[in-house]
Inverse folding.
């Protein structure tokens, strides 16, 4: 079995990590049975189904640091113990028809394990004390880049953003202006926002707020329909004829209403369900 060169990144430095076939260790190639355009699906609103994977269109410069070290592997030093302690990614790449296929696995801090062991040394009939640093290798790929298609594939945006921070622009969060709009009682009298501190709110919630703000004019024009929808599926959410937002859970309740995520099944037994994500098939 041919050995593959395995590289990694630690604290903005690139290293050659090991040589290994990776058989029964890391099945790095992804099955791209169904591709989902992350940007067109709202930059994070969509939740993947089985056998689906997100992608974003790229250009070479989006991955310039990695590309530089793939085109010039001699620029990668051999790994050191200190670098291994700070390892952030493992990666390997293949070149097919002069185009690069890059496979990346994130190394989480919990996967870097340093422990002291007692091990038996039969030649001295005593135990040997040593400290070993181990890094857990997962059998999956977090990020895959196809240079020929100019697409980068991923399952979780947080993985992509941590490895390539320049892609964070595709995950729009609520700005200060969005927050002010969200809290504007005169413009949107049907909202009562009682949250004082948005700065420490998780990114996912800021993203949800940004998406809601983009829909508020549509809600305003059809407010009676939205209130009727809320009274059908979330009867306790409207208070004093307003959608009252006191915490992050209420933001999700409002998103359910704004994006009409709650529905009743029409075939078989009637069931009220909540869609984890949505696709607009036809208007």
């Amino acid at each position: 079995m041919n050995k593959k060169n395995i590289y990694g990144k630690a604290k903005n430095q690139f290293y050659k990590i090991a040589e290994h076939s990776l058989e029964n260790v890391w099945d790095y190639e992804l099955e791209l049975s169904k591709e989902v355009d992350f940007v067109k699906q709202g930059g994070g609103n969509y939740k993947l189904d089985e056998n689906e994977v997100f992608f974003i269109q790229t250009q070479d410069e989006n991955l310039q640091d990695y590309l530089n070290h793939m085109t010039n592997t001699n620029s990668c030093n051999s790994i050191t113990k200190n670098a291994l302690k700070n390892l952030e990614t493992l990666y390997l790449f293949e070149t097919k028809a002069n185009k690069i296929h890059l496979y990346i696995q994130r190394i989480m801090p919990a996967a870097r394990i340093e422990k002291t062991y007692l091990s038996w040394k039969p030649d001295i009939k005593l135990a040997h004390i040593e400290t070993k640093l181990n890094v857990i290798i997962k059998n999956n790929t977090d990020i895959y880049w196809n240079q020929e298609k100019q697409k980068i594939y991923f399952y979780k945006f947080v993985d992509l953003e941590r490895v390539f921070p320049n892609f964070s622009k595709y995950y729009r969060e609520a700005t200060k202006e969005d927050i002010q709009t969200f809290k504007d009682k005169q413009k949107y009298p049907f909202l009562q926002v009682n949250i004082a501190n948005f700065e420490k709110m998780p990114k996912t919630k800021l993203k949800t707020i940004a998406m809601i703000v983009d829909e508020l004019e549509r809600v305003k024009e059809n407010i009676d329909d939205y209130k009727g929808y809320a009274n059908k599926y979330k009867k306790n959410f409207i208070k004093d004829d307003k959608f009252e937002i006191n915490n992050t859970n209420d933001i999700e309740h409002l998103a359910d209403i704004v994006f009409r995520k709650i529905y009743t099944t029409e075939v078989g037994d009637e069931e009220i369900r909540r869609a984890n994500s949505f696709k607009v098939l036809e208007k």
User: Anything to note?
Assistant: Helices lie at 64-71, 81-85, 157-163, 176-182, 203-221, 223-233, 248-258. The chain has a mean pLDDT of 89. The first helix runs from residue 64 to 71.
